[in-house]
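User: Hey, my collaborator sent me this sequence without any context and asked if I could get a structure. I don't really work with proteins. Can you help?
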Amino acid sequence: MDRHSLQFTAPHETERRQTTFTPADDEVVVETRVSAINAGTELLIYRGDVQTDRPADETIDALDGDLSFPLRYGYAAVGEVIKVGAHVSSDWRGRTVFAFNPHESRFAASPDDLVPVPEDITPEAMAMLPAVETATSLVLDGRPRIGERVVVFGAGVIGLCTIGVLASFPLDRLVVVDPLAERRDHARRLGADETLSPAELSTGVDMDDGADLVYELSGQPDALDDATDVTGYDSRVIVGSWYGTKPTTLDLGTDFHRNHVTIESSQVSTLSPTTRGRWTNARRLDTALDRLRALDVASLVSHRIPFTDAPSAYRLLDERTEPTLQVLLTYS
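Assistant: No problem. I've predicted the 3D structure and written it out in structure-token form, which is a compact way to encode the shape of the chain:
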């Protein structure tokens, strides 16, 4: 079958290419209706700021090969099942489903790899499930406790979803740091108690004994130093950012050395060893669906761009000529 796939072809270059695929008897064919761009990860690829010899994602079958150009990428597609294989129940035909699949007009997938879209969730909201699942994973890894002081660096889509989940906890304070005023406004609407620009950080965070829990979600390596600066004794820093090939210099001087600060990476592809005893990917996904219903993710959508004009979406995100949050690609 023919389709159009978005391909990253070189740094700062993308194009729609016609490709073909052959569905297996145990697969269905999905016609894409909407897909969400993950600006953090996809901009690293778009700019050529990743190690190209790394697998695209070993946990997602649809992302084959490595991160060298040209490549198909993306992992947030929602569409309608238009065809079922000979070994698949006809009940799947006509269902609206979510898939961790690259940006393309149609694709084949095993029913086991699809998530049926609940009737009370719109396709656009469902396309943002990976962002909310990542936020769910970040909160699981951070283990916030009652009365804690929490600081979040970065109020992009992942940061805002994380803020929304954290706001449901009985924290003492939830402080957000981001350079963009419109993102700080979103953070307050989602439950942040206080928001600051990085320039206000030295005088704005007034916490006796420092923060208990800090999230670095900005994607900017320099922010990791700021994150450790606001910690107190026995604090935890959860790093959800992927810096790609961008280097980071971290001050691990006296305060860090004496305060027993823990810096921990958090990534949604795998469950943390501390949660694997009781949590599974399916349980986390179910929890993320509940959070998706509770969060006002529709307010995070800043742009809807036709898939036929997909390259302009990446130029918009890269050049930031206007405020952007969640960019959706729409398919007619």
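In plain terms: The chain has a mean pLDDT of 94. You can pass these tokens on to your collaborator as they are.
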